[in-house]
Amino acid sequence: MYIGVGIFLIVVGAILTFALNASVDAVNLAAIGWICMAAGVLAILLSLVLANRRNVGGPGYSSRRVSHTDPSTGTRVDEVDVDPRA
């Protein structure tokens, strides 16, 4: 989600820093542009780190499937253990 915001901030910052030749008395537009670009890069990096953190554990649960043959009846037995807390 923040990747789009980060790209937008980088573009706005680059325009303020490199393409705009206007001057405002109390504001340094080039400095604001560099700040916007840095904030954009930080937003993209933060978005990637948070997306990676959510995907590390899988869907939020673990499961285990065991199949064996019951010796008394000779039939196949499937056991599935699901742990939603993992």
What overall geometry do the principal axes of the alpha carbons give?
Answer: rod-shaped
- C-alpha termini separation: 26 Å
As a whole number of angstroms, the C-alpha radius of gyration is: 27 Å
Query: Which series of helices and strands comes N to C?
Result: HHEE
**Count of discrete structural domains:** 1
Structural class: alpha+beta
Strand content: 15-25%
Assign a percent range to the helix content.
Answer: 40-55%
Poorly predicted parts:
none
Strand order of the largest sheet: 1-2
> What's the main sheet like?
2 strands, antiparallel
Number of helices: 2
What is the tally of beta strands? 2
What do the pLDDT scores average to? 84
Observed structural traits:
86 residues; alpha+beta; 52% helix
What does this 3D model show about the protein?
There is one protein chain. The protein has 2 helices and 2 strands; from the N terminus they run ααββ. A hairpin with a 6-residue loop joins strand 1 (62-69) and strand 2. The model has no long low-confidence stretch (mean pLDDT 84). It is 52% helix and 19% strand. The protein starts with a helix and ends with a strand. It is rod-shaped and about 90 Å long. The protein has helices at 2-19, 29-55, and strands spanning 62-69, 76-83. It has one domain. It has 86 residues and is of the alpha+beta class. The protein has a two-stranded antiparallel ribbon.
